Amino acid sequence: MNLPIEPNMRITLNFSLALDTGDEVDSNFGQDPVTFVMGDGSLLPGFERRLLGMRAGDEAEFRIPPDEGFGTPQDDNIQEIPRREFDEESPLEAGMLFSFADAAGGEVPGMVIAVAEDSVKVDFNHPLSGRTIHFRVRIARVEPAELH
Length: 148
What we know:
- By secondary structure, the protein is mainly beta.
- The protein has two domains: 9-70 and 128-147, Chitinase A, domain 3 (Roll), CATH 3.10.50; 75-123, Thrombin, subunit H.
- The chain has one helix and nine strands.
- It is elongated and about 65 Å long.
C-alpha cells in the first residue's frame, strides 16, 4: 500500500539542500536514504510541511524562505568574547568556526567575524540563517511509525 506522508509516519528519503547560487550545502543522493518520523524534530517544520501528502516514489523540489527554514539572523546572536577565552597560541581570523559550550552544557557553533586586540566578535546565528534553501527530495518509503 502506498501511504501518503502524514504526521507520525516513518519516512525514508534522499534529500539535498542548495542555496540560490546553486551551491549544494548538503546531500545524501547517491547514498543510502535517511529515515525519520514526521514530527520528531529531525527536519525543520517548514521542510516537513512540504512533504505532507507525498508518497513513496515521489520526487519534488521546494524553495524554502528563511522564515520557514533556518530563520533570519538576530543581532543578539552576535557576541563579543574576551580574547583571553581563546587559546593564546591560536591564530584567530574572520571565518573560523569554533564550538562553544552553551548554558545547558551542549555545544553551539560560532563563527569569528572580527578580531580585536582584546576581544573577538562571534556570530552564533545558524550559518544558513537568512538564506533561501532549495530543498530537493525523493521519497523511498512511507510507513506507520508504530511498525518499528
